[in-house]
Amino acid sequence: SPLRKKRCLMSLFILHVTEYCHAESVGGTERYVLDLIRELEGSGSRNAIVWMTRQREEPFEAGGVRILPLPTAAMRVDAPPAELEASVLRLLEKEKPDLLHFHTFGRSESLVARTARRCGVPYVFTYHSPAWSCRRGDLLAWGRAACDGQVRALRCSACKLHEHLGGGPPLFHLLLAWASIPVGWLFAKDSNLNRRRRIAFVADTEHFRQDLEEFLASCRVIIACAQWSVSVLQRNGAPALAIRLCPQGVSSRLEGAFQGSDKDVSAPANKRFVIGYVGRLTPVKGVDILVEGFHALSAPDARLRIYGWTEHQS
Q: Which percentage of the chain shows pLDDT scores above 70?
């Protein structure tokens, strides 16, 4: 019952684990986590953010939320920092959370989950983005076709090479990735990250695959934000019974503001069809695909409006 659920929430202390934090930047995941915390606190639970970062070390507060930094690797496929496990143990011992809620995934997050599980702390996961499992970040095989999403060391490494080297025949990149395997395993523990990434990328992808499957298999609840996410999660080891489809959209409060309106919402007289995009201007968002698709149309009354920013400028 709603009353029982509220009572359960009132007894929970939840740590939200994320690479993206509102204290540093403004984006979808940052906003989602902050709004979720405010909604949960309205039901009586306590919350804090565990920020996977290399920028801060000491806890602080931002937007009325406690931020607890943990060290993380530079890239999601990199091995976790040597000091991370001890840092997680200290944090769990001090904070004594009832639940961890992961909003990003990488090998560092996998170690956090593994350590929490060993300490008897359950965790859940919201799969916000294909970048949490796809090395390219866009879930497009060879940058063109929708991928099935299953992480495979050779295929995913070759696809990432295809992106890094600016395209070309997929077979060439598959052969290049395959040829790198014997030498790459020798450099899998190389302390020189730049050299290891150039040589041991297939080994890194395989370690990432293993960590992702272990992470998903032990997750109590996995929240998929879109229908396509369900099959991707299952192909990577998520138990079907653990997945909850929770599509994102306009909040019920905003939707209610438009109900009963007597304003005319019919098309304007000029019948111009406008597509709008607001967000970061990065390849992972697919803006280039939107532009390419728009140019392929023969619709003189259609318009495309793009408003956005890069990582370094508005």
A: 89
